[in-house]
């Protein structure tokens, strides 16, 4: 009840203050509204047994809090928060705004989103709202203000969580109105839109803003800049929704950190533009247990999250203990694999490890989605594994607040990604995320830490800078890359880079526009390559290095001073440069004018790293054993074995494993599925 609540603020001001108090946060989404109150006390007792110290409450509780318009029922939530606080379990209190109750859409159909075909969606699922709807936003603000006013000083509340997995897209009239407003702000007038969109093409000239619509279904291809701007608009609109609720929480007197959960390399929201709006980066990650390379891909995502926060610790807000329910075929995880996934996040900078959800739902669309407490209850291998994780995370307290230091930057930009994958390009087989993953994998297998940065980021701290595909290249970004090379960094740029400006207009002149001088090459055409891989040749390549081939896309290049390392042996570009290196200032730039085979990519990135003076965290090994991951976070060297073979890894003497208290000598054994967390012995 309200009168039981403490008037003392539980505000911490930062996530770092939360972890300084509690250590690594461990828990998950808790949805007590799905259960009778008699279950809540059992939940709390089992949470304590598992070492849970943080739960997210209220994400999908709008209909329970507001069963009919204007009615508020907080009594059940009062009881839940008091129970958790009495047990010493902190709460990340969520606004329930991600899933409006059915009455909102039925009474106000304009709050429901419209898809690209013009079909208005209906209630009965989740995320059924238009972020452009003023009516939705007024109701979302009202319930958020009341929630914050009631619980801003509740002693259980250590964090606030706005919405859930923002990613809603609306093509309806509400969105059209807001899109025009956004365009007016961006371009000033309709003439600015016509210029930016190149509407002289296909007679698309607009005389008035009222003529402009979202990129709905059309007879043929949509204007690519219209599509790009609508993506930018949608991301900004969702950020407006987040910001106004965040501000309402602050206005109610809450000073705890406020966040929302990202979704990795999510195509519908530019998380870099959101990063400064959240007090701590939080992310949901669901790697596929069927994919043996998923550990590499999720490591890239975790490096992105750490980078978005400027290197500060982040939270793994959601993951699965075993099988999820939304793929067509859902392989389970073992408790050991679930532990490995959690500790991988910690190794890459997470100070919070949470799951969806605490107790498995018995009804609803996610009744077969895994949870920390399964349908079978606590007497299960799964729950015993959860308890083991809680104990492990307590042992890892020495890493709290520490960082992963990187000397390598990978350049990644959402707008460039969006624009590069519009239809009607030389090939649709060139997929930006696939190339990003291939490049990253070469560093992962060497134990080299990476930051994922914006194109115009300050690159002074990096020795090696990689741009796998920088389709949009703006002057500031080009200047930053050139400065990095001049001062001594090594730069590696992939194909189909330097193609377009910020409006996705192809830059006039030889490519890569704005980067030609630093790269020492220039091109005149982007060419889709035949299905049979094209052989590459050159004195730089030795037969023992493996297959030197190009596929998918090549550039018709000439050298403008760069040293040609590989040329095309056959095919439409026979005899022309494919890979070149250009010394400039104190550094060098490598240009990959084609999608090259893994063997070529490995040699290029390995040589570039060596030339830049970058080594992995296991310097005795140029390349780590397959699926062995090595990360240095603060004082702790993490070795994680994602493979099926036992590995023996050379390490410096004088280390002890935080997880087992075992002292090591010059070699440490890492069994399949296991993790070693090595720190200097106090007496060494």
Notes on the protein architecture:
By secondary structure, the chain is α/β, with parallel strands linked by helices. It has four domains: 2-172 and 227-399, Alpha-Beta Barrel (TIM Barrel); 174-213, no CATH class; 408-612, Class I glutamine amidotransferase (GATase) domain (Rossmann fold), CATH 3.40.50.880; 628-680, Golgi alpha-mannosidase II (Immunoglobulin-like). It is 31% helix and 19% strand. The chain has 18 helices and 26 strands. The strands form four sheets. Strands 10, 11, 12, 13, 14, 15, 16, 17, 18, 19 and 20 form an eleven-stranded mixed beta sheet that branches. Strands 5-4-3-2-1-9-8-7-6 form a nine-stranded parallel beta sheet. A hairpin with a 2-residue loop joins strand 18 and strand 19. Helix 7 crosses helix 9, helix 11 (294-308) crosses helix 15 and helix 12 runs parallel beside helix 13. The model is unreliable at 1-12 (pLDDT under 50).
Number of helices: 18
Oligomerization: single chain
CATH superfamily of the largest domain: Glycosidases
Q: Tell me, what is the CATH class of the largest domain?
A: Alpha Beta
In whole angstroms, the N-to-C terminal distance is 54 Å
Radius of gyration: 26 Å
Helix content: 25-40%
Mean pLDDT: 96
Low-confidence stretches: 1-12
What shape does the CA trace take? globular
* CATH domain fold name of the largest domain: TIM Barrel
Structural class call reads: alpha/beta
Number of domains: 4
Strand content: 15-25%
User: How many runs of DSSP E, i.e. beta strands?
Assistant: 26
How would you sum up the major sheet? 11 strands, mixed
Architecture of the largest domain in CATH? Alpha-Beta Barrel
